[in-house]
Structure formats: C-alpha cells, structure tokens
Design a protein that fits this description.
about 20% helix, EvaA-like_sf (chains A, B), Nucleoside Triphosphate Pyrophosphohydrolase, seven-stranded mixed beta sheet, EvaA-like (chains A, B), homodimer, about 475 residues, globular, NDP-hexose 2,3-dehydratase (chains A, B), alpha+beta, lyase activity (chains A, B)
C-alpha cells in the first residue's frame, strides 16, 4: 500500500520531471557558523539573519501538567510573520482546476514538489530582501468580492515552530490566467490523485486543500465526482465503496436552520475544556542556555540524538527569488507517523481525533491525529510508555489500511522531514468510548472546525486532505 | 432614552435590593504600596500578589503600523489564567430560565450587579488562595453529554488586559437545582429586559448571553418570544416593529447544506486580511520603565491624565470568597462609548462593524463596534482626528436611537468603568460602502463568528447581547 504508484497523467509527469531537472539546485549541509548572512546573537546564542525578518532559532522552556514529561527545554523556530499560501482555482467544463507550481525547496528530499500558486512569507512578497516579485500574488492581495473561497489563518508544526501560522487562501480566478513557467492548471481530481504518491504534493498544498474540503461556495462549490478506476498500485485502497462512504461522510448532517447541532457543540466544548486546562506553559529562553542540547557553531542537537537537530544549509539555484542563499534548517530524527483511526458508525465514517498539546501552538491545544509521533523517540521507553494506538496503527492488517503514503513537511524550514500518513480502520480493540483526550467525530465536523482556523493542527489537516482525496473513488 | 426605566418584576427588584443591602461592602481607594499581599517587584516595578496567581500589572510597548499613534507604552493587566463564566439554564413551561447571581464586585458603581451562575478565575475555583468553594461549579466542570449549549473561549478588554480570555459556558441543568442564597432562577426574557436598565446586568453575563444568541440546540434552543408591552421609559425604543425586525435578522439566510454562504466567507476573509497585516507589535516591558506614565507607590497614571490609572483598593465584605482583600484596580478616565450603527438592507438589519486592533488581543484584531472610544481622550484633538462615526452616533436624533444604556465593565478588575452602549440607525451620511476597516454585516453572521470564539471583542459582544435582548419586542 506504499505510495509509489503511477501518475494519473503521463504528460503531467513529464512536465513535473522537466521542472525538477530545470531546478538544478545544489543543497549542501554546512556548519551553522559558515552561513552567510546569519550569526549567533552574542548574548543569547539565538541564530538570526542579518537583516532581521525571515526567522530566528531560539530556545523555549516548556512546563507540561499532563504530558509524560513534566518539563523540558528545546530549540524552536520563531517566525512571527504571517505568509500567504494561496491556491488559484477556476472552473472549466464543470470541473475545478487549480493552478499548481512545481516548486523547489531546499529541504525537499526530491528537490521539487507540487505547491500552491503562491507560497510566500511576508518578507518574500514584500521583497524586503530583494528578489523577484511573487507571481500571481495580486490575485490574493486584492481578491475581488465573490472570488474568495477560503481565507483563514492556520497553525503549523507546534513542536518546531513558535506561534507560526499562515494565511490559507483559495481564490477563484476571473478572466484568463496564463500559465507562467513552472506553473500549470490541473484538475482538482488529478491533484487529489497525486496525493496518493509519496513526496509529490507538499504540505502547503495539503493544508490549503484541507480548508477547501469544508467549503462549498457557489462556484468551485460543486466539486466534481472523482473518476473511477484508481486505487491500484498506489497509496490508496478502495474497491469496496470506501470512497463513496468518505464522500457521504463529508456531507453535513443537515440541520436546516444552519445552527450547530448538539454534537458539533460538544466537539468544540471538548476542545475548549482541554484548552482551558492550559496544559502547557511556555517561556522563551536564550538558545545557548537550552538544557540537554548541544548548541555549537557547528550544529544544534539533542544530547541523546533524539528529536531533531538544527544544521546549516547552503543553497545554490537559479530559479528562486534570489540565486542562492544560506539558512539554518531543522532535521528531524527518523520518519514520523501521523495516522487517523476510522470507523463506520451509523453509516457515517468517523475519525478518532486527539486533543494535542504542542508548545508552539498559540492556543496550546489543537485537534490532532489519533497518532502523531516519531517512533524512534520512544524506542528507549517500555511499551506501556509508547503513544496510545501507535501499535494498533502500525500492526494493522493490509485490508484495514485505507491510505498509506510518505509525505514531506515544509521544505523551506525542515530538511528531509517525512511523515508516514495513514488512514486505518480501527479494529475491535479500539474502544467506542475512548480515553478522555480522544474523541470520535465525523469528517464533516472536523472539516467545519478546520475552516474556522486555529482548531486543527497541520498533521490532522494533511490527513483530512488525504481523506478528501479519497472521496468519490469507486472500484 | 436613558436606561433608568422600571424593573420588569417588582418582586425581583425587591430581592435584588435586599441582596445589595446584604452585601454591606466597603471599598476604599488606598495607595498601591499600602495593599496587603501585594508588592512592586524590586527589579521591574510590576505589581504582583505575594502568592503568585491572580494577576500582575506590568508594562507593554506597542508599535502600530496603521493607527493614528505609531508607538506608545502603557501599563497593562496580565492575567493568563482562563476562568469560567458559566450560566446554568433550564426549561420551565416552554420558557428558558437562567440561574443568576446578585454578585458584589468592588469596582461596581452600585456594589451588586447580576452575574452568571459561576464567575470565577481559575485561582478562585481551584481555591489556591483559600476561600469558599465556588457554588454550582460542578455543573460546568463536568457537564454531562447533551447538556452543553455554549462552551467557547472569548477575549476581554484588549486595551486593558494582556491576552486575557475566559471560558464562556451555558449548560442546561438536568434535575432540580436549588436556589442558594444570592442566586435566583429568572426567565431569559426577564433577564433581557434587565439589560435595558443602567448598570444592572454585568459584563460577564452579557458576554455569555452574546454566545447564547447564536446557538440553538435542541433544548434551550427554542428561545421564547418576548412578551409585548415594554420599550417604555427604559433604555430601548420600539413601537414600530423594530424588535420583530431584530428577530428576523438573527435568522440564518438558510443555506440548506449547512455550509457557509459567500458573504460569511467574505466577512471572515476581511477579518483574516486585517489580522494578516499584523497591525500591532507588542513587547512586554518592565512596568517602571513605561514612558509617559508616572509609576509610583501611590498610583500609576498617565502624564496628561488620559486613558486610565491604576489605584489600590481595600475591600471589606462578608459575602465573598474571603472576608476582605486588597487589590490594584484600573480606573478609566471618563465614560466610554460603544455603539453599533445599524441599517435595514433588503429587509434585514445590518450592523456596521469595525476591524478593531487592540494590543492585548491575542490575535491583535477582532471585530469591534462601529465606535468604541473614550471621547475624553480625543478632546484635545482636532475634529478630523476624532474617531470615525463618533459624531454621527452622539448627535443622532432620538427617533434613530434604538438602545441607549450605561453598562459597567468587569467590576473585579475595573473601578467604576462605565460605557454608554448605543444602537443607532445610520443616517444618510453613513455610506453603504464604508471605509476599508468597516464592514456591514447581518446579526446572524456576527453571531456565527461570535460562537467560534476569539473573533468578536467584548464590547461588540455586549452590543450583540443588547440587540438580542431587543428581539421580539413589539409595541
């Protein structure tokens, strides 16, 4: 069930390979103190860019009332600016098309991945560091009335970023929009099929698609039915109507007055209760003082080699905003797992979500996947201390695995950061009445909370987009 | 049109007066350095309580890209704990009843006001400072499935509090609940009528009622029609079907599939755009270093006597959690104005909202009233620099003033802090296409954003509750 299957469209695949070739990028890991334009703050050791802006690497002291570890310190990436992740869409012959980009990011394991039309930090698009103008930005900066489909702030990795969020936008193009070099209009259903391949659709695309999954405006509203015949030799398994079940499960339960139903209120209440407990306290600290970490001019790494390290990267390319640059990047140790356990209840697909506390989230707690961890970090612990449901997910028989792909996290800040994303049907051992920090909910309710912003973490949003990509698939 | 009218229920009024008499509280303004249990931090000058917890008074440096003043410094109250504002409701003979409390707060201009069933900081209800148990807390701490009507985190005054928010809850009681001393079941429509009196219904009640206005669960859902015959001699004017118009305008536009309509998306998009601009940067600074403010052992006040001051207050009472206590309080200079301009468009009442940036809001920008200011702070400025639409609101002829009451802000932190709340029909001079930071929206959409939390500021929520209280009123 690994996501190494075929492309849905040979011509598209040729275009993508050509773009990857044209990117011609060299990425080299170098010592932190060799990074041009970056320096360690003499007082704190924090890594800063000469011109300000971009991001800094600093320290965080975390106190956790409820987690397995009561307190720890860690390096963290601070990037308070709000960037734009914007997907331009249009309708052609009754189908939705998306303007995608083949974008090189230095952290991508394969150089180029599919990104949204615009993927730009504020520093990028206001061009404070020089560089070229961001193509198509005008469609998002001054969206005309009636064209906005999605526009909401969403968090990113709460273990690696301090309070980071991006503006997730989907805007419908009015009038013709040309394909510039490196950009291409593709059908939404084709983009969904690309999500069944390993490391092709990047994180920023996935989070935008997760927001789109919940919104049905007059236009791109009518998401077309997916064509039949896939599910063979790639990351998704169907053949028994699972896709149709997913489609039905995204549908609202149908409260005619548009007000929230009781279960929606209870899902929000459960999240509010977890937030109100304030399970984590966080305090910025000077990077150099971070306990249990080695913070040198070479790299920043954990004493026991766990979690992640921060390394220097030298990028030489001809296709980005500037012709080359240096930057620190975060390298996770080992491949992560992010999984939803799912179960059909009353004819509707439910997912088991978790109230996930992460120190970098602005509200400490968001809704996360059933399982989200790097198993290697737990290898030294007894089985009882491994994350709940991890073994259930990893040992599920193939017929219960509905989705299984390796997807990359943000390649602009994370170096070779991969997660194995899984959707697995829960076995009998998974309770209908789960532990207090878990909750069964429908795809519809999860999508409704997603579109409000700041409620669903980025890994759960990726899984939501993966599930949405499965919808409508038929044998 | 001032809110000095009659009580809807003479017996209720007698009970309330009796409670006020029984509270027997002495509140005395004293120098800050005379406060028992409080001290100025030797390093920073910040005011702290001996035991930690409660709150601190510290400093904030604010940079504003878009406001009239590019940078300033100010004292601010930091209270990171999340408290509970909980209203217990039940159904009796087809009507909703609420368990209210006659609660003494030292800052109340009249001692006792109507508060929700539970109004407690986390320090209160976990009893870290001793004191009595919080009555009825168990209904909110462990609400049973199907009983939660509202449960959401909401911000409070963003100019006076740093990142403060409370958990707003409405829970339906199952089984009989006795009225303890100081508590009383009242009909929701009676509570609504009390909102037309000056300084009777406190801020915490208003914010909880604003959330209730948008939610319609199976139970308390069916908010009963208000009885006819009020609107005379109190803070609300009707007589021409305005109440019925309000009721209709709270109704959703009726998108049968439960997904957001285009205009709801655009309202959220407008708010997201204002947030993404990050109009304010805030940085905590030591209190003693705050520029333009005098920070002494006596009080903290602005050089020119504007904005507010921080004073010491000595409270002696027999009815609160402890028998007496000392604390700093914030005293605003002059009475504020918070107003909605409203207009009927297409048979539906619209309100003119504003993207309001305030330094203490966690997300910098929330939806605020059309006008929100303390006019005295602008007395020294030329007319062109006065807040937009302030004169329109204050000079409206009586027949356009639909609501006009003086209501108090939180009496536990603010001393004699009053705002004049107004709902005024817009004259011809108010454009249909307002300046970019204003937006016309319906009551329904405003309520829908309110129930998501962190979108609508506390003054706009008070106005929403006031408007809801007008609904159904007929001549």
């Amino acid at each position: 069930m690994a996501g190494g299957g075929d492309w849905p469209d040979g011509e598209l695949q040729r275009w993508f390979r050509e773009q990857a070739r044209a990117a011609r990028t060299e990425v080299r890991v170098v010592p932190l103190d060799a990074l041009r334009g970056w320096h360690a703050d003499p007082g704190t050791g924090d890594l800063r860019h000469r011109g300000g802006g971009f991001f800094t690497v600093t320290g965080l002291a975390v106190g956790s009332e409820t987690g397995p570890v009561p307190r720890w310190e860690q390096p963290i990436i601070s990037q308070p600016e709000i960037g734009v992740l914007g997907l331009l869409v249009r309708r052609r012959a009754g189908r939705v098309e998306c303007l995608i980009q083949a974008k090189m990011e230095p952290g991508n394991i394969n150089g180029v991945q599919i990104s949204p039309t615009v993927q730009a930090t504020r520093s990028n698009y206001t061009r404070v560091h020089g560089g070229r103008a961001t193509p198509y930005l005008e469609h998002f900066a001054t969206a005309r009335p009636g064209t906005v489909v999605v526009d909401v702030l969403q968090s990113e990795q709460g273990s690696w970023f301090l309070g980071k969020r991006n503006r997730n936008m989907v805007v419908e193009a009015r009038g013709p929009v040309e394909e510039r070099d490196g950009f291409r209009w593709v059908r939404l259903d084709v983009l969904h099929r690309l999500m069944r391949l390993d490391n092709v659709v990047n994180m920023d695309t996935r989070t935008v698609l997760s927001c789109l999954a919940s919104v049905s405006p007059p236009g791109p509203a009518a998401l077309p039915a997916r064509p039949a015949g896939h599910g063979e030799g790639n990351g998704a398994r169907d053949g028994d109507g699972f896709g149709a079940l997913v489609t039905a499960s995204f549908a609202p339960p149908g409260r005619p007055d548009g007000r929230p139903d009781e279960t929606e209120i209870e899902l929000l209440s459960w999240l509010t209760a977890h937030r109100s407990r304030q399970p984590m306290t966080v305090r910025p600290i000077p990077g150099r003082t971070v306990r249990d970490w080695s913070w040198t001019g070479d790299e920043i790494s954990h004493r026991d080699g766990r979690h992640f390290s921060i390394v220097g990267v030298e990028v030489r390319t001809g296709v980005r905003e500037v012709d080359g640059w240096d930057q620190p990047m975060l390298v996770p140790r080992g491949r992560g797992v992010a999984a939803f356990l799912v179960r059909v209840v009353g004819g509707v697909l439910h997912v088991l979500v978790r109230a996930a506390a992460q120190p970098g989230l602005r509200d400490a707690v968001e809704i996360g996947p059933t399982v989200q961890c790097r198993p290697e970090n737990y290898a030294h612990l007894p089985a009882a201390d491994r994350p709940r449901f991890l073994d259930e997910v990893l040992s599920a028989p193939p017929e219960r695995v509905r989705y299984d792909c390796v997807l990359s996290e943000e390649g602009g800040r994370f170096y070779h950061a991969e997660n194995r994303y899984l959707v697995v049907e829960a076995g009998d051992g998974v309770p209908d009445d789960p532990p207090e920090d878990f909750r069964w909910t429908t795809l519809h309710r999860l999508a409704a909370l997603t579109r409000q912003g700041h409620n669903v973490n980025v890994e759960a949003r990726s899984l939501l987009a993966c599930l949405h990509a499965l919808s409508g698939a038929t044998p």
